[in-house]
User: Fold these one by one.
Assistant:
Number 1:
Amino acid sequence: MVVSLAHRLAAYVWAGPNTMLGLGAGLVMLAFGAAASRIHGTLEFSGGAIGLLFASRMQPVRFQAVTFGHVILGTSAAALAGAREHEQAHVRQYERWGPFFLPAYFASSAWQLLTGRHVYHDNYFERQAVESCTRH
């Protein structure tokens, strides 16, 4: 029990710098009408004007959900529900990689671009998250 608690605490601390980025973004979303909830050890922020903005087809960068450490941002509650398992896989990746996750993620995307692959779908971390969802 004590080892498990220590392990969980260490995972939160290790992912902490990325979680802070997510908290900052989540607070901005809250200021524009988003909702927040705590689910499976994460804070989820969804909806509001910013959620609508990122869901819009007018944006060059669109997403339904994105994870920063132990914070998941979603365009809507329904989008979060649909993406939750995938985003939880990213939470586990943040717990393993800590502050190195974002540089490694972007390096993988850059490598995919340089080798003529898709920067998102062929990204190592995205493929790993998709695979973890198909195993369940």
Number 2:
Amino acid sequence: MNVQLTHMETRLYCCDYCKKEFLPTRRKVQKFCSNSCRSKSHHQKTKVSKALSTLKGVTKTEKTSIDKISLAGVGNSAIGNLAVNLAEKLLTAEENKPATKKDIQSIANKLKRYHLIKNMRPNFNGQRPYFDVELGVLLYL
């Protein structure tokens, strides 16, 4: 080994990454034998710390800028929402629109307990056949 000693260090050190012995060029501060070992050690540490953080469910969140709410933005949002609702009302056929509370109440008012069965003849007493909705039976009234 043909190394010129321009410093006072004569003891060999062990590289923290590859574990080879080396003669440091800087006194007591050099932990790696080369820049490539130093770089590889750093990459290995960051890879392990990322793996541990994902196992724990902790992810590093990036800082993002928060958009300011402006009056113009709120106005644009309201106009856009109004336009979509108007287009939906105009372009949706009446039979495809959802039922409202009023529609359901009108159907409930039309439904009575007894419904006349029109395709059956009256009985021998002249009573007409009705279907009882609550009991689910046929009655002659």
Number 3:
Amino acid sequence: MRGARFWDSETISGRWAVTEQASSRAFNLRSFVAFMVTWSFLAAVVTGIILFVVPQGRIANWVEWSLFGLTKDDWAGIHISFTFIFIIAGILHLYPYNWKQWKHYLAERVGNRLNFARPKMELLLSVVLSAFVVVGSIADWPPMNYLYQANDWAKAAWVIEAAYEPPFGHAEEVSLATFAKKQDMDLAAAEEALRAKGLVYGSDRDSLGKIAAANGISAMDVYAVIKPLERRAGPTSDTVYTEERVEDLFTGTGVGGKTVATLCAEAKVDCALALRRLADRDILARPEDDMKSIGDSAGIRPTDVLKIMLVAPPSEAEASPTLTADDIVMKFEGAGVGRMTLAQACEKLGISVDVALSRLKGKGHEAQADETLKAIGDRLGGRPMDALLAIALD
């Protein structure tokens, strides 16, 4: 019959059910992209907050820092990966899925709010604010610098004792043999100490980090076992600092995050003297100021600030009285001169090793920087004190 319809209500409902079922089984790429934008944004935020407060890399690697079983490198890897995914998913979310809506929004803004008939306040304010953040971040202006200070404080808060600081940067990456040499300890004695503690490792070419991982401990724990074997003396009140000595003792120990007062205490130097030396170079500082902020203000590295604090300028050296033989005897008598190496004696006298060797050579004697004054004195036909006088006086 003309006009007859070959379907009824049951047919329509059946086809609708089939269509709905097929639609529910289909993969919706737009929804997938929207979810990926959400999850990657949340992951980037969470990992960013964690990376904001984790300790510095040298500390994290030294103490085997972890959070929820993940190391700093693990968290950094997750942050980078999800940030990249967020960028890609964000681009896809805008184009093609929301491109029409975005163009419509811009058209409305241009037609109603951003026309030339009135000031473009939204655009101008956003540009000015963004420029301020960029310039302020570079120039260390408030409130951006408050964020950096909070970051420095959070990272420094993990160092609850001196052992958390490695003796030098990336100390966990060097081999046991190299580490023993740098820290002036007997390698055989260090290996014996490790074996006595039950620590297993392949050879002295294994790094402290590898030894630590093989025994389920941190590089800091490995160092604690062999630290008593160090022959190298730390700073004392008699230490005479040179720029090389400052580099040797403090490089890689987180100088930038430490205050003037803290470093003066570690270096055994009077804080008032250190501040006066800085003031003489037109660098104003307070005991509670950290080295990074002082260095940024002066346009130099934190380590260079420390050198100014610790290394006596020529003016001070000229003002110092010349030591006589009696002065040297009085100062060093009973101080174990015989056990001192020539290098250690030069440090206490404030002269270079080259000068001492030259003075000995002028007296017809050869010596090495690591020789003891007793050995040198024996060759001179006298006491260790005679060797000390020979290198101290022209």
Number 4:
Amino acid sequence: MAEREPVTYLVTQIPAISHTFIADEIIHLEQNGWQVRTIAINPPTGVDEHNPSDQMWMRRTLYLKLIPRLRASMTVLRHVVRHPSIVLLPLRLGGFDVRSYVWRYFYLAEAILVADAMHGWGSHHVHAHYGQSPASVAWFASEVGNRVFPGSTAWTWSMTVHGWHEFVNEEAANLKEKLAAASFVVAISDFTRSQLFRIADPEHWHKISVVRCGIDLTRFTRRTPPAEASTAGPIPKCLLMVARVSREKGHLVALNALKLLRDRGVDVVLELVGPGQFGFEAHVRAEIARLGLQDAVVWHGPATPEQIADHLRRADVFCLPTFAEGLPIVIMEA
């Protein structure tokens, strides 16, 4: 059987604590005979340089924003000069917002770098996780490839749409246009697919399939129930919330629920696991102080998958109050 050509995966960041499911997906594709090349738009943050897994992903991934500026600029300029029609690609998305057009040209520059790398690998298909900027770059990269590196194999692209963030701003994300242009689209749940059906023209519905996220069950073992009491007295119940600290998560709801429990005499402690995002952590800390819960909340910050599994084993109750979700991996893990 002929060897499969590489497939390129385009993500915002890898390794990333909140995107371990993407890394797992790539690994399982490779275990099933696929060659996968990885490109990340942003460099990794908060990685453990001593972690073999993090080291592996950093070695194998092309980080667009770590390409030396002079080299990146020369690559983009070279292809634009030889094929000036590619500068018209962002205009295909329509609209009249100047700021959006500026961002699209940033995406185009990144797409040229992606297409240049893919050409060197012999890859003609790029798959993007998330329907926002990664999908824009992947779409433009396939168009650039077809114009700059024409051949017997057409360049194609696809995307995985997770939900809420993509279709809450469907016009800004140009989802309708992307659904028409992609060769196929993965929805991570039936609800996500239903929203994509709502947005896409019916003639493109056949391209949208549900592929649910999964977890590695070998990471999780049944625990021994914790002792109810010790010589020091009753042990406080452990309430666990694992989520990035951002506006769409319900940390403030969890804190008010914790306050109700404590006021009713329930000895419970809330443990928070997850990275902060966009400064929202300050609001959560202020609410803890306002409610007088400083002694009832434990902050753990970001955690590896192994550490999260350990937190889940020790917890009495897992909760995830949230205002917007696709299909949270941590709920399946819990």
